[in-house]
């Protein structure tokens, strides 16, 4: 029986981790951060936004059911446009909870900024800024690999040549 003791194991935030997964972590954390700024700003100020873009007339000009329908229609459109599928398995088996935790912390920081986003620059300028933030988030998502298996992305099975062979230990039973 041969047991392979591969030296390809690497620590979190080591140079090897950053070489293999640094862009993946940057992609997930930055995408979540930027998109949550836009998402929470839009959610908290949606009444003002919907009125400013003409999706929601003044409350006195419609019945409660009409208002409910128009708000639901606008929220459905926003939800459909804002749905971004996340990559569930990007990091190797040793790191997913830590890396997703870092991305989630980044997400919460974006939510805090989005909740505190000052609407004092005017609705038009606010929407332009939030649009630019969303576009930046869109481009950062391309750092997250798609269409590859977890083994291909993690590259943990790639041979290290002679180094792996020299670390193999032969046991006889």
List the helices and strands and how they pair.
Layout: E1 2-4, H1 15-44, H2 46-52, H3 64-82, H4 96-116, H5 123-140, H6 150-154, H7 162-166, E2 168-170
Antiparallel strand pairs: 1-2
Helix/strand-derived class? Answer: mainly alpha
Specify the overall morphology. Answer: elongated
Strand order of the largest sheet: 1-2
Runs in which pLDDT lies below 50 for 5 or more consecutive residues are 1-7, 159-172
Mean pLDDT equals 74
| Structural Rg | 23 Å
Largest sheet: 2 strands, antiparallel
Q: Note the total helix count.
A: 7
Helix % is 55-70%
From the N-terminal CA to the C-terminal CA, the straight-line distance is: 7 Å
Strand content: under 5%
Secondary structure: number of strands: 2
What distinguishing features does this structure have?
mainly alpha; two-stranded antiparallel ribbon; disordered N terminus; elongated; 173 residues; 7 helices; single chain
What does this structure look like?
- The chain has 173 residues and is mainly alpha-helical.
- The protein has a domain of 90 residues.
- Helix content is 61%, strand content 3%.
- The protein contains seven helices and two strands, in the order βαααααααβ.
- The protein has a two-stranded antiparallel sheet with strand order 1-2.
- α1 packs antiparallel against α5.
- It starts with a strand and ends with a strand.
- The N terminus and C terminus are likely disordered.
